[in-house]
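Two folds, back to back.
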Amino acid sequence: MASGTPAESIAASSSETGKTLNAVSRGLGPKETTVLQEPDGAILHTIAISRLCFKVGRITVPPAVVLALHGFCEPPAQGAPYSHENPPPSFIQAKKIRSKLHGGNPKHLKAFFKDSWRDVPSGQRWWEDALGGSVEERRKARLGAMEELRRGMEEGHA
């Protein structure tokens, strides 16, 4: 049977939380802090890290293929922003695979995810263009910070 009062167990729990937060802070190390302010002046204090692995059964699908097929791409270099009337070139290709109106269907989409993307010659892989350029530059620039954050969070659990 546990001894002590409920207040003592809360204090112990708070102490453990403090230790965990200190470990996370040490893992992150001294860094210049970026404060993101919302348009209404609020400050957002949130951390979320996700590792994604796209699969069809046991087959891993490259993230660029999945994301580009769902419209994710770098912004236009110049001119009008992308819209329903002005879709990105990669989305036009994606519709040929997934949209019945453009000759695609769910079976084509599954086959493409499974292995058909490998049959596209390297110079014609439209998904690489969609996620290249500024998107790839931002991903690489932010990857180091995310790895440090992940490591700090994991060290906090140890």
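---
second:
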Amino acid sequence: MPAPGSGEPGLTSDEAGALLAKSGPNTLPDTSVPAWRLALAKFWAPVPWMLEAAILLQVGLREYVEAAVIAGLLVFNAALGFFQEGRAQATLAALKARLALMASVRRDGAWKEVPAAELVPGDTIKLSLGGVVAADVTLVDGSILLDQSMLTGESVPIEAGPGLQTFAGALVRRGEATATVTATGIHTKFGRTAELVQTAHVAGTQQKTVVREPGHVQWGHHPPACGLCACPQNAGR
């Protein structure tokens, strides 16, 4: 029995090459950040600057206990932010690991196995049992059971037929179908999700305090050296 959509001629090699030059490879850029840079970045931002200035002020006033408390808060917040962003990096790596490495594509009227990075919009690809969808596609023939939980959160696989759109990273649980590629690389839903994970930022506790309640900052008997730093009250005064 011929494969679904076997009559589709697909793109020619020349057309695919031109589209690849225009749209770019079907890959996600490597945006990983070295751990040491991620850690140092936690001490280089407006809120850490405020705390660092407060530490210097307290040391200048010979109030070493208060300086140590502020330093502890600074280090704790930096460690918390580093841990949270580390989890985001790990999530992104797990997403990338799910991408298909090879794809069955129809070029020049024949089915070929090509690196998934060479797929372009307009390509006709085959989706088979156990395979991972290599790009955002619209099904044109056949019927498959798709697991899209990684991207949509749906716990139950869905039946997919002609006209249904699915996304890079989905897993084919049953059946076989052909589909037309609609988006590749960073333009896929997978790519946009990875970008959101990469750029996600969780505000630290002291940052939320400064942003939400700027009028509630309490000063000690010693006024701040400048408007950028707040000193904890000395409980003994």
